[in-house]
Write a structure and sequence with these properties.
- With 555 residues, the chain is of the alpha/beta class.
- The chain is 41% helix and 12% strand.
- It contains 22 helices and 18 strands.
- Strands 4-1-5-13-6-16 form a six-stranded mixed beta sheet, sandwiched between helices.
- Strand 2 and strand 3 form a beta hairpin.
- Helix 1 runs antiparallel to helix 20.
- The protein is globular and about 75 Å long.
């Protein structure tokens, strides 16, 4: 079962506990109701803290503080954040500097040795002790926590005390849409994204040259190139050990390959109508072809088990030929230059599918950030602190690090990283994260920071894809890591998670059994469809159609 399912189920089991805990610790709004019974109110109440009085003085009339100070006196708040299984560390250089400039410091509640974000999150919920600030990998889980009273609505706080966040809300439709829950409340500040493209198709140009082949432009041409990679010894070692098509996508790896036939194992909207793609003709075409590709040795034989290290292993071993991955794939041209003479990985246009359509499904959307819990005693200071990261100074700190140390500013105002970042033993993004920059908080991720560390070929990939917005679907809701990020009513959310807890693992199990040849796809497909209907796929489709209509503004 995917982690996305277990997260939802774990949250459902703990939601009632969190709701009663929040009410029991005195979280009330001005009308005397607990937050769990006044979910649609834009209350700024927190446990043990009095909400700002109606008509109270706005932030700009309060006594001015020097520079970027958020508080006249030093204040410390607890935080739950475990981005990429890296628990928040108050000793990170960037956060030490942030504390110095704002007078606000954060103390992580997760042990630095705990790399399991889901486990740590559920442990916090079950303990009944919420951190003052909470971030989590799944936005729907944070919204559920808000509806249950564990996070406070931020609407009024933003309006009164966060002018920078308010400005972005007003100017950026996608950011605003990501922030608002269907009940009208804002429970978390999203992490915004400036760039559109995220992942790209990459292929070994040196292998193409050796075999006298052209860069493929269609899925059929891709098949022929990959077949040649498998059978004509492009690495020249006399062994049939090439892995023509590989990925390091983990549980979403099937989607990466099925995209070649414009399909997947999950939901996808088309012309205003939500579809469950395993029920559609493209899915049958895609699976049939992948079975063939697996039998021919085109697909990685460790397709389902390779994992996150696959790219390093296969490229450094001169075994991998083609993949769908981030711009960092271009870095191997530099790191492997002395190991594999002539090594040359280049980006190419998404291959046109069997219908002649060029499409790239993976792109960037505003993502999950952080919210304020109902146990925070001073939400006003916290929202001012969160607003700091949308100021020019705060933005520079969390995107670039510390001026003079990790980056410098040119005469024209542009920034560039120092040799400390560019020549670190880590990747540039790895180094930045090691000092606390580029963490998963409410912020605007500066696209220029990424371009500043791109190699020439990586920049080529970024420009190639960003210059073709038509490759990316119109009217597409957030589609992150192979799944749609729609917003559901509380009732629909619970029902949908229960349905998908049965449906999605079944689809994944069947897909794997077909690819590996354990079961026959052609003879078993009709029974597969009947089983999906028995498990409630039609109702799941109805719920997703309703959520998609809401996204499109039809509801």
């Amino acid at each position: 079962m995917r982690k996305r399912m277990t997260r939802g189920l774990a949250l459902m089991m703990t939601a009632a506990m969190v709701g009663s805990m929040a009410a029991g610790c005195g979280a009330k709004n001005e009308g005397g109701q607990t937050q769990t019974t006044a979910k649609a109110e834009s209350s700024t109440t927190a446990a043990g803290a009095k909400a700002p009085e109606a008509g109270s003085a706005p932030a700009e009339t309060e006594p001015a503080l020097e520079g970027s100070l958020v508080s006249a006196e030093p204040k410390e708040f607890t935080i739950f954040l475990n981005f990429n299984n890296m628990p928040f560390d108050s000793n990170w250089q960037v956060w030490q500097e942030i504390a110095k400039r704002t007078n606000v410091s954060l103390k992580g509640t997760t042990s630095l040795t705990n790399s399991n974000e889901e486990e740590a999150f559920n442990l916090m919920l079950s303990s009944g002790q919420l951190a003052d600030i909470i971030g989590y990998v799944k936005s729907s889980d944070l919204e559920q926590l808000g509806r249950d009273g564990g996070l406070i609505p931020l609407n009024d706080l933003i309006d009164q005390y966060a002018p920078n966040i308010k400005r972005v809300m007003e100017e950026d439709d996608r950011f605003r849409q990501a922030a608002y829950s269907l009940d009208g409340n804002i429970y978390y500040i999203p992490k915004n994204q400036e760039l559109l493209s995220a992942e790209y198709w990459w292929i070994r140009q040196d292998w193409l040259d050796k075999l006298g082949l052209e860069v493929p432009t269609t899925v059929d041409e891709l098949h022929d190139v990959l077949y040649a990679f498998r059978n004509e010894d492009p690495n020249g070692n006399g062994i049939k050990d090439e892995v023509p098509l590989f990925d390091r996508a983990g549980w979403k790896q099937p989607e990466e390959y099925l995209y070649l036939w414009d399909t997947s194992t999950t939901f996808y909207p088309r012309d205003g109508k939500m579809t469950f793609e395993p029920l559609e003709e493209n899915f049958k075409i895609g699976v049939t072809n992948l079975i063939k590709w697996y039998e021919e040795g085109i697909l990685d034989p460790e397709f389902f088990t390779r994992g996150a290290s696959g790219r390093d292993t296969l490229l450094s071993g001169d075994l991998g030929g083609c993949t769908h991955d981030w711009v960092s794939t271009g870095n191997y041209n530099k790191t492997l230059a002395d190991v594999i003479p002539g090594f040359n990985m280049v980006p190419f246009t998404p291959p046109a599918d069997h219908n002649g359509v060029v499409k790239e499904r993976v792109s960037r959307y505003p993502g999950v950030g952080w919210g304020i819990s109902s146990m925070c005693e001073d939400p006003v200071t916290v929202i001012k602190f969160m607003d700091f990261f949308f100021s020019e100074e705060g933005d520079a700190l969390v995107n670039w690090g510390i001026e003079g140390d990790t980056y410098t500013v040119n005469a024209d105002g542009t920034k560039q990283f120092t040799e400390k970042v560019l020549n670190s033993e880590l990747t540039p993004i790895g180094y930045l994260r090691s000092i606390g920059a580029q963490y998963r908080i409410g912020m605007c991720q500066d696209g220029e920071y990424e371009r500043a560390v791109m190699t020439e070929v990586a920049l080529e990939a970024s420009k190639m894809y960003d210059s073709h917005p038509e490759w990316f679907g119109e009217d597409m809701p957030p589609y992150a890591d192979g799944e749609l990020e729609l917003k559901y009513t509380e009732e629909d959310d619970t029902e949908y998670k229960n349905l998908m807890a049965s449906i999605q693992p079944y689809v994944e199990q069947q897909f794997q059994s077909w690819i590996l040849g354990v079961e026959d796809f052609e003879t078993g497909y009709d029974a597969f469809v009947e089983e999906l209907k028995a498990r409630g796929i039609d109702r799941a489709l109805e719920i997703n159609q309703k959520a998609y209509d809401t996204y499109l503004g039809k509801n």
